[in-house]
C-alpha cells in the first residue's frame, strides 16, 4: 500500500511574542513552514529574525505563544533537546573552532548527540570508543557530500571564508536534522561563493529532503532559492507567501525594499 503523505506542516509558529527589557523583538507572530520547504525570513535590521531563530532552537523562551515542530508543541526547549529532536542550526558569524581540523569540527557537531558519559569518554571505555568510530565515519560521509574530503585534515582557520561556511553547514547537517536553521549563510561572501552556497542549500533541500528556514538579506538570492518568504518588520509579520507574491507586494516594497529599491523587485 502506498505511504500516505504526512499532512502536518514541519513547523508552526503560533502567536509568538518576545521582548527584551520592554523592547518588543517579536509581536504575535504566526506562520507555518511546510515539510521540505525553503522558507526565507527577510526584513530590515532589528526586525526580529535572529531572535526568532533563537526561539526555534531553544536559546530564547518566548513570552507567549508556542512552537509546534512536527506536531509536537513546545514553548520552552533547551538547545540540546532541539538538536536531539532534529532541529539543526548554523550561525550568523562563523561559529567554527578555527584551530581545529575540518574533520574535528564536524565531529564536534556530532558529539552533542553523544550517549557516552564524561567518565566513559575520559577512560575511553567501549561505548565512547564505539561512538567515536561511528562519529568519524559519519563525519567523513558528510565531508564527501559537501566535497570537502580533501580538506579533512586542514585547520579551518586557514581556509577561504566560503569553504569555512560550507564546513559550518556540514557540521549542522552531520547530526541529520530534519529542520535546518541558517542565519545569513551567505553573508560576507563574494558573488561566486554566494552562488555555490546557495546551490549547496538547494541540494540539501532536494536530496536530503530537509526543511530549511534561513535569514537572508540578498533579495535576488531569496527570490531564486526560497519557496516561501516571511517578511518581518519591527517584530511583526508584514507579508507571508510565495516569492513572486512578496516581490510584488506594495507594503514590502515600501517598508523593506524601499521605494528607491523598487526596481530590484521588478
Ligand atoms: N539579547 C538581546 N538583548 C536585548 N535586546 C535584544 C537582544 N537580541 C535582540 N535584541 C533586540 O531585539 C530586536 C530584534 O533583534 P534581532 O537581532 O532579532 O533582529 P534581526 O532582524 O535579526 O536583525 P539583524 O538583521 O540586524 O540581525 C532589536 O531591537 C534588538 O536590539
User: Strands across the major sheet, in which order?
Assistant: 6-7-8-3-9-10
Q: Give the strand tally.
A: 10
Bound molecules: adenosine-5'-triphosphate
CATH topology of the domain at 11-97 and 177-265: Rossmann fold
Task: Note the overall shape.
Answer: globular
Low-pLDDT residue intervals, each spanning 5 or more residues: 259-266
The share of residues in extended strands comes to 15-25%
What is the name of the CATH class of the domain at 11-97 and 177-265?
A: Alpha Beta
CATH H-level superfamily title of the domain at 11-97 and 177-265: P-loop containing nucleotide triphosphate hydrolases
Oligomer: single chain
Q: Average pLDDT, to the nearest integer?
A: 85
Which architecture of the domain at 11-97 and 177-265 does the CATH hierarchy give at level 2?
3-Layer(aba) Sandwich
Instruction: Please work out how many helical segments DSSP would assign.
Output: 11
Which radius of gyration do the C-alpha atoms yield?
A: 19 Å
Q: N- to C-terminal separation?
A: 47 Å
Q: How does the helix and strand content classify structurally?
A: alpha/beta
Keywords: ATP-binding, Nucleotide-binding, Transport
Domain ABC transporter: 11-259
Organism: Shinella pollutisoli
Protein name: ABC transporter ATP-binding protein
Amino acid at each position: 500500500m502506498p505511504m500516505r503523505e504526512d499532512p502536518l506542516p514541519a513547523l508552526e509558529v503560533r502567536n509568538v511574542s518576545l521582548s527584551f527589557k520592554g523592547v518588543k523583538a517579536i509581536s504575535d507572530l504566526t506562520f507555518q513552514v511546510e515539510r521540505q520547504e525553503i522558507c526565507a525570513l527577510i526584513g530590515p535590521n532589528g526586525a526580529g529574525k535572529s531572535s526568532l531563530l533563537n526561539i526555534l532552537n531553544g536559546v530564547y523562551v518566548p513570552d507567549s505563544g508556542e512552537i509546534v515542530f512536527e506536531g509536537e508543541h513546545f514553548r520552552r526547549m533547551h538547545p540540546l533537546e532541539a538538536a536531539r529532536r532534529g532541529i539543526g542550526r548554523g550561525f550568523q558569524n562563523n561559529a567554527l573552532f578555527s584551530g581545529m581540523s575540518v574533520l574535528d569540527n564536524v565531529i564536534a557537531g556530532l558529539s552533542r548527540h553523544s550517549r557516552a558519559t564524561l567518565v566513559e569518554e575520559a577512560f575511553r571505555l567501549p561505548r565512547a570508543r564505539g561512538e567515536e568510530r561511528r562519529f568519524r565515519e559519519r563525519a567523513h560521509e558528510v565531508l564527501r557530500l559537501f566535497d570537502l574530503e580533501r580538506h579533512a585534515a586542514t585547520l579551518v582557520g586557514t581556509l577561504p571564508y566560503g569553504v569555512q561556511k560550507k564546513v559550518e553547514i556540514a557540521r549542522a547537517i552531520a547530526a541529520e536534522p530534519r529542520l535546518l536553521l541558517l542565519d545569513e549563510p551567505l553573508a560576507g561572501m563574494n558573488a561566486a561563493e554566494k552562488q555555490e552556497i546557495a546551490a549547496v542549500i538547494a541540494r540539501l533541500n532536494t536530496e536530503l529532503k530537509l526543511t530549511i528556514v534561513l535569514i537572508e538579506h540578498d533579495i535576488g538570492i531569496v527570490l531564486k532559492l526560497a519557496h516561501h518568504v516571511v517578511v518581518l518588520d519591527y517584530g511583526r509579520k508584514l507579508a507571508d507567501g510565495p516569492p513572486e507574491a512578496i516581490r510584488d507586494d506594495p507594503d514590502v516594497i515600501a517598508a523593506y525594499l524601499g521605494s528607491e529599491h523598487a526596481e530590484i523587485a521588478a
